[in-house]
Design goal:
The protein is mainly α and 177 residues long. It contains 9 helices and 2 strands. The protein is 55% helix and 2% strand. Helix 2 packs across helix 3, helix 2 packs across helix 4 and helix 8 crosses helix 9. The longest helix has 25 residues.
């Protein structure tokens, strides 16, 4: 499944980094095209204006062409979650899951805080992402907060709450997932 672009992308950072190294949009597009084919000056312009959000591979190519880390092109945050660490490393979810020996769906649940990773597993994640274990562990804790609230809501409402299907003129019984 194709991504929808990097949510934390900061258009002003791209413009600032590009003008800081004195590159035109055309020069940046040409340089980044070595890593991500089919990138044009028009794309760079749309990204800088915030009218379009780049995919992770495109963002990584732009960062390489500018000689900066991917995080330089993202909105600054105080506490990073696991998804943010992965994006900063320039790694797709599928590729990280594969390198960790997991299915993508399982890693996705970990990123969203629906599964709690074991401490030994966090060490492996830290090594793979090239980040300190403490940062990854803190990110995993930060990721878990919203999921804990969602799980509590789910338990309060019950497992079948809100799962009734309706058809014109008749109601269908609740279904199990």
């Amino acid at each position: 499944m194709a991504g929808r672009g990097v949510a934390d992308f900061a258009p002003a950072s791209l413009l600032s980094e590009r003008t800081g190294v004195d590159l035109s949009r055309e020069e940046l597009a040409r340089s980044a095209s070595r890593y991500e084919p089919c990138l044009s000056a028009a794309h760079v312009g749309l990204y800088e204006l915030g009218l379009r959000v780049p995919q992770l591979s495109t963002l990584a190519a732009l960062a390489r062409a500018l000689g900066v880390e991917v995080r330089a092109l993202l909105v600054p945050v105080e506490i990073e979650d696991l998804a943010r660490l992965r994006v900063e490393a320039g790694v797709r979810q599928r590729d990280l899951a594969r390198s960790l020996g997991l299915a993508q769906a399982r890693w996705s649940r970990i990123e969203r805080g629906l599964l709690a990773p074991e401490p030994d597993f966090l060490r492996t994640v830290a090594e793979t992402l090239g980040r300190p274990v403490e940062v990854v562990a803190r990110s995993a804790l930060h990721t878990r907060r919203p999921a804990s609230a969602a799980l509590a809501r789910h338990k309060r409402r019950g497992p079948r709450a809100g799962r009734e299907m309706t058809m014109p003129g008749r109601r269908l019984a609740a279904y199990a997932p």
